Amino acid sequence: MNKMSSIHSLSRPVASKKQAASVQFRNVTKRYGSVTAVDDVSFTIEPGQLVTLLGPSGCGKTTTLRMIAGLEMASEGQILIGGRDVTNLSAADRDVSMVFQSYALFPHMSVLENVAYGPSVQGVSKKDAYEMAMEKLSLIGLKGLEKRAPSELSGGQQQRVAVARALVLEPQVLLFDEPLSNLDAKLRRRVREDIRELQQSLNLTVAYVTHDQEEALAVSDHIIVMSNARIAQTGTPRELYEEPANLFVADFIGDANIISGDLVSVTGLMAQVNIGNFSLQLPHRNAGQGPVKLAVRPDAIVLDESASGVLTGTVRKASYLGTQVEYEVESTIGNLFVVQHGRKEPIAPGTPVSVSFTTQRGVAIIPNA
Ligand SMILES: Nc1ncnc2c1ncn2[C@@H]1O[C@H](COP(=O)(O)OP(=O)(O)O)[C@@H](O)[C@H]1O
Ligand SMILES: [Mg+2]
Questions:
Q1: Which of 365, 330, 323 is nearest to 346 (CA)?
Q2: Domain locations in the chain?
Q3: Which residue is closest in CA terms to ligand 1's atom 16?
Q4: What would the mean pLDDT of 145-166 be, rounded to a whole number?
Q5: Above 80 in pLDDT, residue 214?
Q6: What is d(CA 191, CA 258) in angstroms, rounded to the nearest whole number?
């Protein structure tokens, strides 16, 4: 194993607990030859917040994270941590730790030695380093396992050791790159909740990379959605879900039916939008008169077997999933994916239905579509 790449604690030792720090990118670009991995990206992570970088593979998430750590240098722009310009500082001079995707624990060292490694190489005495390591191991629920080798731990426990190792020097900012990808599906939910709980109880500033939108919605204060090296939208989980700024975000965050409508008039903040013969009042979101695209969440669509409404369709497929029934409906406004909660008997395929919309919360005009 390459030793350098496995050193998780990138920061220098510190005497006392510090305040969480902000992270700011100002028009940051990273180029690798002719590839622009990150393109003119600006954002701020407030102190003590968990912000997720979310997007499909190759959109620039890891590169962004590595630039926070100082493992990659920006080609253009400015990076600030705790208000200090760190753009040209090496990883060792930034007070940041990273938990890598692979954990990369030293296999020949015990759990305790793994966690104490960072302080030891920084010149802290063995006794003090072990003490610091033990403190973090008990914090993270691994007390009693400190003598084991990493190979004697489960995937979830190894992940915790990696987190303890990143925390041991009490960095100003903690970075996670797809931390759950080596865990089985069942463990993922628990570990992501543990990470969130730890972040909140220690008031840590965390930048968290994932390609999984559900994971991002579950753990984040804010989400930065990236697409093709740029930011597609920034917001709280709820803002992104309920007010997607563009088609990419509408489609990437949760399930959405993208439906064509016609914006006919604006009154104050609201617009009248017609979908076929059906009329809705929606926030106009600065869209002008004329054709608009709407993001309609699957549970915002109501199906009624009376088939007497202005929009009609036919159920093509019904899947009973216990807490919900999922439908595919062929309708006058296109094919729809519909989720209905709390219904006992699914509507049988072939049944004619009328289609309407429950609340305005699950229906939004997509402004840049
Ligand atoms: N060291 C590198 N050299 C050349 N291209 C790179 C390097 N690292 C990343 N890239 C490219 O930059 C883009 C973004 O990569 P990355 O940040 O790893 O994306 P993500 O983490 O979102 O999957 C990709 O096109 C990738 O191939
Ligand atoms: Mg990546």
A1: 323
A2: 8-242, 255-365
A3: 60
A4: 93
A5: yes
A6: 34
